[in-house]
Amino acid sequence: MNKKTLVLALIGGAVIAISTALRPAPTAPEGKDDELKVLPKDISDEELRQVMHSFEVALGMNCGDCHTHSATNPDKMDWSADTKKKQTTIAMMNMVKEMNEKYFDVKGDFKENYLRSRYKVTCNTCHNGHDEPNPVVAIPVPEPEKK
Ligand code: HEC
Ligand code: HEC
Question: Which of 26, 47, 60, 129 has the most C-beta neighbours closer than 10 Å?
Fold first, then answer.
């Protein structure tokens, strides 16, 4: 390495170090970033809002039940931060997609099928406004008395 290359390499290193230090925290307090697992990364804000609101209604939950505050700024939400409920929700989204593909022949993108009401089984089918669906097995009704 000659002297000139060395100087350039040092400057380059310094620039990278400074830009790393200045980079904002890797969170997207307003809106979305690229952490999405099931929804398409290019989903519009309007469609994202519709999906999230439908989860609230189907489960009787609020945004804050699944999402958490920013670790660096507690006044803001960190929408892409991981939580246990978010992980469960992602598993449920995949489950809904698979059930509809396998048993009801509705194939393709989750977001499109979900928002266009093409799915036969959806969050609300089981949850019906509650976080935990009713696990009680239907009890057979007694035989009607013969007259
Ligand atoms: C039942 C749980 C649940 C509720 C309630 C919920 N969300 Fe979400 N939200 C998720 C999950 C899961 C994802 C990630 C989906 C994915 O990865 O495809 C997400 C993603 C997001 C994102 C995109 C984050 C990113 O990484 O790009 C935003 C913004 C968001 N939600 C806002 C809201 C708002 C605002 C509300 C209330 C109106 C809300 N959410 C309610 C589970 C929920
Ligand atoms: C086939 C029925 C079924 C469907 C469809 C379904 N869920 Fe669930 N879900 C369950 C059951 C059952 C549980 C409770 C599991 C337990 O108690 O361990 C659950 C639990 C959850 C939880 C955790 C609740 C808590 O209080 O911790 C979340 C969040 C959730 N579901 C979100 C969703 C979303 C969002 C959808 C649609 C994308 C969905 N579920 C579709 C059956 C379903």
Answer: 47
Q: Is 84 in the pocket of ligand 1 (CB under 6 A)?
A: no
Contact 128, 140 (CB under 8 A): no
Q: pLDDT tens across 91-124, in order? A: 999 999 999 999 999 999 999 999 999 999 999 9
Residues 58, 122 contacting (CB under 8 angstroms): yes
Cβ(55)–Cβ(123) below 8 Å: yes
Neighbours of 22 (CB within 10 A): 7
Of 21-25, 42-46, 122-126, the poorest mean pLDDT is in 21-25
Q: Return mean pLDDT, the chain.
A: 85
Q: Ligand 1: distance of its center to the CA of 29 in Å?
A: 12
Report which of 73, 74, 119 is spatially closest to residue 93, judged by C-alpha positions: 119
Measured CA distances, 94 to 16, 24, 31, 102, 109 (Å): 39, 32, 23, 12, 11
